[in-house]
Request: fold
Amino acid sequence: MTTYFFHFQTGPRLILDSEGIDLASPADALERAARLATDLLCEDELACDWSRSAIRVEDQHQRRVFELAMTSVRARYSRLRPRPH
Reply:
């Protein structure tokens, strides 16, 4: 198991995940990051520039594993969301 940390970056601002979560693989971390990003997109009160935002994932050694751009999640989310009639 590896401990992954899911930091949220919007522009120059970085919100650190100080707890992290133990997961079996980078694929599990990607799934978790996508879920977190989708949850953030659903937050009506959260105002930020999504084009300059990402979930930055690091391991317990502070090595960057990957960065998930919010724009990629937002594009997928808008395609999957039911459209009002």
Summary: The first helix runs from residue 26 to 42. The beta strands are 2-10, 13-15, 21-23, 53-59, 64-69. The helical segments are 26-42, 70-80.
